[in-house]
Amino acid sequence: MKIMITGGAGFIGSNLAKELIKDGHEVIVVDDFSYGSYLNLNKNGKPVAEIQKISICDNKITEIMRGVDYVYHFAANSCLPICLSQPYQTTDINVAGALNILEAARLNNVKRVIFASSSAVYENNEKFPLKESDEVNPSSIYGVQKYCGELFCKSYRKLYDMDIVILRFFNVYGPNQDYTRQKPPVMSQFIKELLEKSAPTIYGTGEQKRDFIFIEDVVSLCKNLIGAENAKNEIFNVGSGKVYSINEIYEIIDKILKTGIKPIRKSAHEMYEGIDSITHGKSIKQEAVAKETNKFTQADISKAKRLLGWEPKTDLKTGLLASIEFIRGMVEINKEF
User: In terms of C-beta density within 10 A (0-12 exposed, 13-18 middle, 19 or more buried), how is residue 200 classed?
Assistant: First the structure.
């Protein structure tokens, strides 16, 4: 199969690219490298896939997609503070970019598009675990952007009879995750700062629980979508179905690293401190910040189990050890420069 992965130099995309190549597929990586890294795609100093450095908003995507069988559309800006502070720019990427990929796929008669959505679309639900059939009513900028992407997917299904699978990712972690961004994902933030002997910050009580899933399990599900007829036009939750509190995550990482460093604790309202653009004019509501900080997530993954024969296999400690080794290696490399 000839497969295109947008955002293929990023976290999920690069891990998937390597595995698809191992399976004998021809892979084209599309990435503008605003967040992705060439290091994620290197093997012995050489790129593992064909790389097209281009924005997903560029019309040249249509030409690059020629002859492609499957498109995994993973390119997005998922950093919540950036989506809040740069709503126009991130909507261009997360919504207009998705539409450009769908249109290119239509023009090229692509067999299947796999669209990366997010558990953020489930915001404001209070019944758990979350099912794909549950109400979708997001209020965050990022959640709304991803829901807009889903609506375009559904539109293209109905208008053009395209096969488009939607994946709602929960909290994915593991090697190649971007730990350097303004607000890194919580696990990567804890690992990086503890390796540097700094005290990480926990916002709120730390008792808020999230559904974390290891990257290898995510890649396994993504691979299962190739040739899976019963996945046509379906929506799948991609989570572990298990939940851990932020405090539990911190304690496990600290125990592995044996630092004994106590976290800095701040109120939930301080989660987005330092982002000046959202305090100018009409400031963001403090209860909205606290709600995002304290949110609970848990996926019902029975649909993926039933239709794809998929089940996550990686326990939390094993996944964290792999994450720690990756970030430790990158921190050591950065010290040399």
Answer: buried
